[in-house]
Design a protein that fits this description.
About 25% of the residues lie in helices and about 35% in strands. By secondary structure, it is an alpha+beta fold.
């Protein structure tokens, strides 16, 4: 097998490369070792005002090896899959390990936790789209946006991307496994207005299966509709009021919570939810579930980055935090057991508690701010202090009255999470966190 060839390799080829690397590590005296091999190919195109701006073909591959000598760890990587390069990479990792400090928490995940029969989650749907056809789709997406309304007068372009990857992992417990994945996306950004009242907005679709993408023209029109709705924004006077985060913004709020309960944030004591397991973090009735095995989902995985079997769990039950998001290393640092989350969480589902979509959420809001865009990075992960620039719509009696810009919303994440009054059923399923719009009881809105 000529593994140095640039052609796309089969999973069996990648498994044999890992086996060679692990054999070499054992031969050099490593107590434990783990290796991961990946190859990725892709096509990305970008058009602006009907002209091609970018066209990129991607072909990447790499092998990484980590060896353990007692509690000393060394890692090295290469993009060359030849036998000589694999041997040299393992030798480099072994050399590094001899100079690193001992860490009692290092090492492979426990052998008993390895997945035995990885399930097929239907994550690979290659799209053999030509560059010409991809450009044509992106152009039709942008054209639909530009033609939506005479006030749409410029564009930041439309982009189409398609990627497929094959990732295989193995370790000296005897585990070796991998699976192919694909991801496809199409997006559009258009502008409207003149002078200081230039407004922009966007829309996008992403999926494992290219056949599940929203139609190109629909994406273009939605980006234009959102842009037009933002024209002639007003400022607000400083006040406290209820706030709705639309689903794509609500995902970020849940993301801050997830970052706070990662094992690394806990053992480094850099979390506003330090030692919060067992505490009431959200309101009673609120729940977040992890579901790693949803077919075709963007966050699905049969096993984590250490070969540990993924499993369903209730992360938040009736508002209470049941545990953290742990790899084997962070679990050992905390005196706990890995949760199968080396590499992150897999499909977090935030349960809705209000039916009727955005209309029902606006009715429950009554009078307040609907946030559709956030700007800046004013979030302190340690204290939970939250202050970000925002834009959206002022709502009265459940009806949006006018667009709002140049305001800042502020609060503390602990209070914000506990102050969630409702979660809508307008679920955004485009990423690894599936959540609807979120209504917060009150935030400070800083304006004029």
């Amino acid at each position: 097998m000529a593994v140095s060839s640039p052609v796309r390799l089969a999973q069996a080829d990648l498994e044999s490369i890992i086996a060679r690397a692990l054999d070499e590590a054992r031969a050099r005296g490593a107590r434990q070792a783990e290796a991961a091999v990946s190859q990725d190919t892709g096509l990305s195109v970008g058009v602006r005002l009907g002209e091609v701006e970018t066209l990129e073909h991607q072909r990447d591959r790499s092998m990484g090896i980590t060896v353990y000598f007692g509690h000393r760890k060394g890692s090295a990587s290469t993009a060359d899959f030849s036998l000589e390069a694999v041997r040299a990479t393992v030798a480099k990792a072994c050399s590094i390990a001899r100079f690193t400090a001992e860490d009692a928490c290092s090492g492979l995940a426990d052998a008993a936790l390895m997945t035995r029969a990885p399930m097929d989650l239907d994550l690979a749907h290659p799209w053999n789209v030509s560059a010409d056809r991809a450009i044509e789709i992106a152009k039709s997406c942008e054209a639909a946006g530009l033609g939506f309304d005479a006030r749409i007068n410029n564009s930041e372009g439309a982009s189409l991307a398609t990627h497929q990857g094959l990732h295989v992992y193995g370790n000296t417990h005897g585990f070796i496994g991998g699976y192919p994945t694909t991801s496809h996306s199409l997006s559009c950004v258009v502008l409207a207005g003149t002078g200081e009242d230039m407004q922009r907005d966007y829309w996008y679709s992403t999926s494992r299966d290219w056949r599940d993408l929203e139609p190109a023209e629909q994406i273009g029109r939605e980006s234009a509709r959102r842009t037009i709705a933002r024209l002639n924004p007003r400022k607000l006077s400083t006040r406290r009021a209820p706030v709705i985060f639309v689903p794509e913004i609500a995902r970020g709020l849940i993301g801050h919570f997830v970052a706070a309960i990662r094992g690394s944030s806990q053992y480094r004591q850099s979390s506003f939810l330090l030692n919060a397991a067992g505490e009431q973090v959200f309101p009673p009735g609120f729940s977040i579930a992890e579901r790693p095995h949803i077919r075709k989902a963007m966050g699905s995985a049969p096993f984590d980055d250490e070969g540990v079997a993924t499993h369903d769990r209730e992360l938040i039950a009736d508002g209470v935090l049941t545990g953290y998001i742990l790899s084997s290393y962070s679990a050992r640092k905390l005196g706990l057991e890995t949760t199968g989350n080396a590499g992150g969480a897999h499909n977090l589902l935030v349960a809705a508690n209000l039916a009727g979509g955005m209309d029902a959420m606006l009715a429950k809001l009554g009078t307040g701010l609907m946030v559709t865009e956030l700007m800046g990075q004013g979030v302190n992960a340690v204290t939970g202090d939250y202050s970000r620039g925002a834009a959206g719509f002022w709502v009265e009696n459940g009806t949006p009255q006018y667009p709002v810009a140049e305001v800042t919303i502020a609060g503390n994440l602990r209070d914000m999470l506990k102050g969630i009054a409702a979660v809508g059923d307008d679920i955004d399923a485009r990423g690894g966190t599936r959540v609807g719009s979120i209504l917060l009881e009150e935030m400070t809105i800083a304006g004029e």
